[in-house]
């Protein structure tokens, strides 16, 4: 045991009337919603990088946090793990997520770095056995080190491509060994800064080959989890190859991998792409690609990824409505890819940020589930498209322009516009949230 959270109790559900800061008001893991325990619907996870590796820096200033595990060496990495699993236990979250660079020190070369990762994986395995905490997903950090400044899979240097592929293999091995339910590919620098030095065709072919290798290796080692790509627009590269859901779907189709890979969609990235979170989720659901989500929020007055904890029940409810509509999570879940504000220095802040976000998510999820179960919004949607249920109308989609012109002439119908009833549906929505 460490003393980092020494004065903080294990959180429990106490209901909306409690005055206890260290309690859940809306998140009751055992409450049955839509036929399943809330914990099993939401599948909360803590992001190792923001909670334990981030030092509080921003583009204009350095570290503000002082944590007893900051520094190099395996002893500090294990101390970080001790604190992390104590936090998972206090919050009662079932999952966590990590990058390799979050959990192990960098070695002098690839072999030493890999040995460090393997050692910490053994340490994690013991912790997971003791606590029952599981791994939602693992991933490789292919963006922080200067070697990745021109990308990883899309890098013009074959040696960087090779290093990146080897790193992904070690991280897939780690995820598989720990029973991870997904493996994420996060292409933070898979893009370009200028066309003056970029071969778009070559870089796309490299990315496609890289992803095919990942899929092949998944099957080779018998990994039963899901391979996920996380859409990442603009930051830090202005032109990202993994910009949004639609872009990635086109990429997967181009290389014949749409049946092998799904998406991990983040709220903040959706905003940077010029979309809403629910749009990206709805499109992924429509395409059969919705895998998992990173739950956070951006500051709408800032043009970068602020990764704040969610605090808006209506926004969260709209996101979960699309998740529910798509059939809910299978291997995926709700990862809090969110970090404290750099002025929030205390251990209590780390616990309370997650607790508040879990309550917001639970409240939003219950509202979305009730609206979906009662079916009023879906009934209104179905009514809007009801004309297409007529077999003669549905047949037009398999017809041709000349036949449709003959139909219009024969029927001599002059169609009139009909209300979309947006405000009525907004009022309906707001009655639930």
TrEMBL record:
Q: Where does Mg(2+) 1 bind?
A: 230, 266, 294, 337
Q: Which organism is it from?
A: Thioclava dalianensis
Give the record's subunit note: Homotetramer.
Record text on cofactor binding: Binds 2 magnesium ions per subunit.
The enzyme's first-digit EC class, named in words, is isomerase
| Recorded catalytic activity of this chain's protein | alpha-D-xylose = alpha-D-xylulofuranose
Q: Does the keyword Isomerase apply?
A: yes
Fetch the InterPro entries from UniProt: Xyl_isomerase-like_sf, Xylose_isom_bac, Xylose_isomerase
Q: At which positions is Mg(2+) 2 bound?
A: 266, 269, 305, 307
What EC number(s) is this enzyme filed under?
A: 5.3.1.5
The entry's cellular-component GO terms read:
cytoplasm
Example GO BP: D-xylose metabolic process
Active site (catalytic residues): 99, 102
Name of this protein:
Xylose isomerase
Q: Which GO terms describe its molecular function?
A: magnesium ion binding; xylose isomerase activity
Q: Where in the cell is it found?
A: Cytoplasm
Per the entry, which co-factors are needed?
A: Mg(2+)
| HAMAP family found in the cross-reference section | Xylose_isom_A (MF_00455)
